[in-house]
Write a structure and sequence with these properties.
DNA-binding, Tetracycline Repressor, domain 2, homotetramer, mainly alpha, elongated
Amino acid sequence: MADSSWGLPEPTAKTRKGQATERLFLDAARRVFARDGYLNAKLSDIALEAGKSSGSFYNYFDSKQAVLTALAEDFNAELLELAAAPYRRGVPAQEALFEAVGAFWSTYKRRLPELAGVFQASMTDEAFAERWRAIRAQGITSIAEGIRVAQAEGYAPGLDPLLAASALASMIEHFCYVWQAQGGDAVDVEIDDEKAVRTLWTLWCHAVFWRQEDDTGAGQLGLGRTGDAPRAEG
Amino acid sequence: MADSSWGLPEPTAKTRKGQATERLFLDAARRVFARDGYLNAKLSDIALEAGKSSGSFYNYFDSKQAVLTALAEDFNAELLELAAAPYRRGVPAQEALFEAVGAFWSTYKRRLPELAGVFQASMTDEAFAERWRAIRAQGITSIAEGIRVAQAEGYAPGLDPLLAASALASMIEHFCYVWQAQGGDAVDVEIDDEKAVRTLWTLWCHAVFWRQEDDTGAGQLGLGRTGDAPRAEG
Amino acid sequence: MADSSWGLPEPTAKTRKGQATERLFLDAARRVFARDGYLNAKLSDIALEAGKSSGSFYNYFDSKQAVLTALAEDFNAELLELAAAPYRRGVPAQEALFEAVGAFWSTYKRRLPELAGVFQASMTDEAFAERWRAIRAQGITSIAEGIRVAQAEGYAPGLDPLLAASALASMIEHFCYVWQAQGGDAVDVEIDDEKAVRTLWTLWCHAVFWRQEDDTGAGQLGLGRTGDAPRAEG
Amino acid sequence: MADSSWGLPEPTAKTRKGQATERLFLDAARRVFARDGYLNAKLSDIALEAGKSSGSFYNYFDSKQAVLTALAEDFNAELLELAAAPYRRGVPAQEALFEAVGAFWSTYKRRLPELAGVFQASMTDEAFAERWRAIRAQGITSIAEGIRVAQAEGYAPGLDPLLAASALASMIEHFCYVWQAQGGDAVDVEIDDEKAVRTLWTLWCHAVFWRQEDDTGAGQLGLGRTGDAPRAEG
DNA sequence: TATGAATGAGATTTCATTCAT
DNA sequence: GATGAATGAAATCTCATTCAT
């Protein structure tokens, strides 16, 4: 909860008033990021939006990047929690997955400003990108764990769990970004939350929950086992 | 070949010398984008790298963004061509897909500087993002066409071809970006070109080439038909 | 003892607790000045070092400069006292001088933080420089008095006592600064307290305690009498 | 000549116009330093004074400190040259010294803005102080050499040449600063160039050109030999 | 065509000091 | 007496783009 280890002045907000102000700045930052994008956001605008002086900002955060980091960690904590919940409840894997995908989609939507900000910051600042990769790695690891569980039940033999997890995370993350932050691809299609989630879930499900002997085209072509794939030319 | 309609001074480099200089700038831009990223790239560095003056640059391009556009269109033309080739040769769908994925991976790698640049520019400049979505839409449409063909053969019933295509494009595009431009996710996994391509291809294949009656967990759970999925709360 | 007329809130710390806090701030200021230099010292750091809030500081001092003034006057009082002591004891002039130089060296060393601070403040703030010159003038006057006494005994005829005193004060002051505050000149020489003091004293002694007829090179060259010096072109 | 290795963009001013502008900035910087002091000088004022835009400044110098460095090196080169000249002409040592002291005084006066700036920068910026000490060391070494020559002729036995040189350099340097930059000590004395130079020279001469058997007070007191001095308490 | 000098708006960050509690 | 949150003015440096030569 914004108690990140980076970029925040040591104790941060000792009094109740201070804590309120810190939250004021966090919320203001989200709104300004949403409106102008992280890279274009001006600190002075954040302060204005918070109804505070720009100098006050630095009592709580070391830099614009530090607020973003705080928001990003908040987001990540929430997401991990939401995505893990259904699994903890012992719901069957695919139902859990459906919930998790739905949670991602809606959390992403709610947290759009910080997410878009994270992407932008990662593009210009290698150090920030590094941090974000570390955060993102937690999610990847969770997904990979899910794949391993499926594999233990005979699904998706030969698939590299971590690499597949990385690819699936890319899919869901970037799809959310394109449709929520950028207005979607320029193709003729109607989209609503349910349809989006269902599409992602369907792809994901079948990408993972398949068996060797499945009567897929892959099987017919003798390409069913991953190892039999044609050579990649790289 | 840099014959974009935007951002290039009308006739573009008539003389032989002029054409040489234009190429000099394009190549220099790629190198500098690769080194510093598009957003951090300084025009003066591009000129330095090209061995020309920065003023000279404006004889060939209207702006920094214009070089990127030229490079991006070059890339797109090449990619469409490469990805279409196997299908034209009448290769079976999944083999063709494998080739296409491989072509994407290796083209992306070769064109990394401009691709990463495109990402960056899209995140900060809405107008550029718009253009890039138009370009990207061509690829989405192609993928969707492939899905429709598969559906005609009984695969993936109920899947929205365009939305699925958008998601799969997100997967492959972002995965390439993460692993080629950003050094990969911070997880413990070895990666090489073949493994990357195979993983993407495997996921893609099974995400699309499945049938209703497949004995997947999905089937067992009665979730096989897309329409039967639980409600998304988004 | 911090009884300056400038910059201290009128009555200054009546209660015992208040006096303790005032001393806390004075000591903390010295440590921070020593560490960061006066100009770079932040009030917040002084407060932190004192274990008090920065607001509390202003119960005792009107400004950052005011603490420095208090410390500087303390220093000056101590120095004048120490330097005068040997003369009062009736010790022969040169022995007294040796003691005085030694006292200056060691006092300067002990009071380094405030001294360096005084220098820094003098560079940026003309008003402060003015005050410091007034304080410094007391020392110059003392030195000049010593020179006049020597001249009464036939030494250093023709030397302007005040100007010479100013020059000798510059020598000792700046030499102390260079070797104690700045780590010394970048030349290959070992230095210890005794050697430093002896060198200063030796130069000072011979600069002042000479007679017209001395068999110096100056005499040989007919330059012995100050008035005979070649013209300065300045 | 301002071709310092630090802080200047690589080639600096290729065309004649560029060189003119560079000089414009150097001169403007001197004037502004003289007027406001280095620490208080604003870059925008320097640009204004030069009749150029502030952005233009950075085509020639990396920072405010870089201009100062360039000016300081110019000064040092000039000073070493001027001070060495009389010695090269084979003038007797004390006459040469007189000329050298005079040259220092007048050069310092002419170069006051940069010199005062150097002082200021040295007090606040340790890195700059380091550089300046390296430059200053050249002068100290020269002075020490002069002392060694005098000692070879029997003068000032036992005096440490480098330490004494450091002290004498401090004397002349700080005296110049006090009287030229700060308006002099607050004592009642008239000063003109000749008097200043003569005083410095007289002190310096007798500080160095003395012999053991001189009938000074020191001798009478048995303090003539440096080693016999009372103990410094440090 | 080529050069490189000139532009200038713009935003981040610092920190001594005040003051309500 | 003590606290610490709030203030806000101020100045450096960047860099895409233009234009005279």
